[in-house]
Structures are given as structure tokens and as C-alpha cells.
Amino acid sequence: MYSLNTPTPIQCVDFNTHAFMYDRRTGETHYLSLLPAEILLLLENQSRSAHDIATIVAEACEHPMTEEWQTSIDKALDGLSQLDLIQQQ
Amino acid sequence: MKIADISIRDGIKKAATSGLRYQAGPFAVCIYTRNTSLVELILRFYNQSTLLEDDAVCQFHIDVLRSGGLRRFIRPKAIFSIDAIRPFDPYPYDQAFPMLEWGLNWCIGSTAHQYLILHSAVVERNGKALVLPAQPGSGKSTLCAGLISRGWRLLSDEFGIIDQKTGMMVPLPRVIPLKNESIELVQHYAPEAVFGPIFRKTRKGDVCHMAPPPSSLQRQLEQAKPAWVIFPKYKHGQKTELKVEDKGVAFTRMSNNAFNYPMTMGRGFQTLTGLAKQAQCFSLQSGDLDEAVTLLTQLADECET
Q1: DSSP of A59-81, one letter per residue?
Q2: How far apart are CA B24 and CA B44, in angstroms?
Q3: Which partner for B240 in A30, B73, B221, B286 could form a disulfide, CB atoms 3.0-4.6 Å apart?
Q4: Which of B111, B127, B149 lies at the terminal end of a domain, its last residue?
Q5: CB–CB of A29 and B277 under 8 A?
Q6: B131 and B104 within one domain
Q7: Cβ within 8 Å, pair A29-B255
Q8: Which residues fall within 8 angstroms of residue B264, CB to CB, at 6 or more apart?
Q9: CB pairs < 8 Å spanning A and B
Q10: Nearest 5 degrees, angle CA A42-CA A43-CA A48?
Q11: What contacts B170, CB < 8 A, 6 or more positions away?
């Protein structure tokens, strides 16, 4: 299960092709592509598994839920973990 | 009461005793000094600013002192002191005015965190503000001087001060310090403007101050809504060109350019993303002052029609 490390509500602003997110915990501003930004917002209210995240985001983006899609979600989750914005429990 | 309403003699007396207190945009400043030529320049440049009462509460109490010891007879120095702290090495005594201006910049940039402060010029036309964030050497002050000589109102040459509650640009009209080659260029471009003496061989080269227009001083409490953010870059021989800037890139450039973005935290983030979203963002390359001024004036006037 993945959950947010950063306090909620998330301060995230979408600039069409990418987004900026301000982490109130560290004072850092992060430049994110839209997929990881979407994942952060999804985790704002509750922890979720990687599979749940992939399914919900696929529906929201009208994208087929394929193995490649799950891989891209896993990569985004790795990236967010490396930025210390989320943690895996 | 305006500064222009007192005599030079009274101004010198105030500065030497209770302090010369005046309004500088949203700030109240108090200067204590016995340097008469410094006081004369303040009175001349800021004649339309509001003179404050002798007991007015001021954010900044600045002493401009003369160095002591034997050196004061040979090479006298001016010392900048705020709240008994001396943040800079002394300057030559006859460079007290540029030292005061740079010192006041330092005071504002390092303490006024109720605002988000960009390193930027800001001018206004038809009620809309044009924000010019820039690195040193980009030609920001020269362009700002050119614009105000062609009808734009000066909000500030150095600080893009943003009210974080409203997103409005807060004026702080002060002198424009022109440096080296731009002194002659602007004096030629705006012969009707008021200029101070040329301070030779300062730490930033030769410096000459252009006075803020009286109307800008009179309207210094009138904020303006930002409509354009333009990143200027002067390069000799460069064709004048205005290119739309990606808003995300504009946000990144402004966050790197702001004096106090990290200090303003989530609120600063909100303010700056709001500005990038709300304003039209461009990059301006130019090697010709008049072309740049004409292009920006056309942009502003086209928006009006």
C-alpha cells in the first residue's frame, strides 16, 4: 500500500503539460509530469495499492488497463518514493 | 505633507536630529545622517513622496555615518547602519547615496517577507502591470527607464512586490540606478527626465540615478493587477523579438528569481503559480531600446482595444 508523506491538502498546480507541487513538510517545490501528480492527488484521502492506483488512473485517463500501463504506474510510484513524497507500507 | 514642502535646510536639520521620515511605497523609512549632499539628493529625488511626522513609526531606521579616526580627513567613508547592524563594508563618503539605495534594497529584500518579492522592474499602463523579472546585466533598468519615459507608470525598478492576499503589484517607486553605457543611452532617450550626478567607479561601475517621475511618486499607494510577465534580455545587435513563454517555465524562472520564495512557503507557491497562470508570459530579446519600448507599448495598447 502506498500513502502520502507530505501533509494534506496537497498544494499542486497543473500547467497543462506538467504540474508543480509544493511540499509543506520540506519547503521544496517539485516539478512533476501529470501522471505522478495525478497519483499524489489520488493518495490524498487514502492509502492505495499499486494495482488500485493503476486501475483508477486508467479509468480517469480513459486508458486501457494493460501490463504496460501498470509498469508506467510502478515507475511513477518509484519516482515519487525517491522524492520522499510517498511511502510504501 | 510632501517632501517638497520643506526647505533643504529643514530637511538637513531633520536628518541630523529626529530623522528624515518618508514613505517609500508600503514602507516608512527614517534616515539619520549629517551628510548634507545625501539629504539634498533624497529631497530632490523623492520630492513628491509623503513626508512623515517626526514620531511616525518606521520599518527601517537607517544611519548613514561618517567614519571616525584619522582616515576621515584623508579618505572619508560612509557607513550604512540599520538597527545598529552594519551589514556592508564602508563606501567612499561621496558615494553615500548609492550606498543608501543599495542598503535599503537589502533591508527590504531580507525582511519584508509579508510580500513575495521578485527581482524585477514593474511598470503600469492602462491600469495593468507589466512585470520584468531579470538577472543582473539583462538590461532591466534601461528598459524600465525607457518605458517610463514613454508614458508607463513606474511601480519599481528593483522589486516586484506582490501582495500575497490579493496578487496585486505593490508600488515602490524609487530612483533607477543606470550603470555604465546605459547612462548616456537613457539620457539621450529621455532628455526630459531628471538625473542625479554620476558616481564614478562604484562597486557596480559608474552609476547615475534617474529620478522617479513625480506622478509615479504621487500614485505610490495605487496597486496594479499584473497582466504581463516578460523576461527581458538585452544583447547588442540582437533583433527585437517577443516570444510566448511556457507558463511552467515562467513559474520556474520567477521562483528562482524571487528574493524570498523559500521564506514565503506555501503561500508564496500559491501567489507565484497564480501570477504565472493569470498573466501572459513572454521572453523579450532586444538590442534596441526604442524597438523594445515600442513593442511593449503596442502589446499593452492592443490589449486595451
Answers
A1: HHTT----HHHHHHHHHHHHHHH
A2: 14
A3: B286
A4: B111
A5: no
A6: no
A7: yes
A8: B113, B116, B164, B258, B271
A9: 33
A10: 105
A11: B25, B26, B115, B155, B161, B162, B163, B223
Last residue of a domain, one of B71, B90, B111: B111
- Is the Cβ of B251 closer than 8 Å to some Cβ of chain A? yes
* B5-54 confidence digits (pLDDT tens): 999 999 999 999 999 999 999 999 999 999 999 999 999 999 999 999 99
For chain B, what is the radius of gyration of the CA atoms?
Answer: 19
Interface confidence (ipTM) of the complex: 0.90
Please report the domains of chain A, with CATH numbers, ordered by start residue.
2-88 (3.90.930)
Closest CA to B135 of B292, B254, B5, B289: B254
- Most B CBs within 10 A among A6, A18, A20, hence the mutation to make, goes to A20
As for how many domains chain B has, the answer is 2
Tell me how far apart the alpha carbons of residues B251 and A15 are, in angstroms, rounded to a whole number.
Answer: 10
> pLDDT category, B305, cuts 50, 70, 90?
low
pLDDT tens column, B186-197 = 999 999 999 999
User: Residue B209: is it exposed, middle or buried by C-beta count within 10 angstroms (0-12/13-18/19+)?
Assistant: buried
Summarised one tens digit per residue, pLDDT across range B100-153 is 999 999 999 999 999 999 999 999 999 999 999 999 889 999 999 999 999 999
Contact check, Cβ <8 Å, B276/A31:
no
User: Are A15 and B248 inside 8 Å of each other by CB?
Assistant: yes
Predicted model pTM: 0.93
Answer yes or no: do B80 and B148 share one domain: no
CA A75 to chain centre: 10
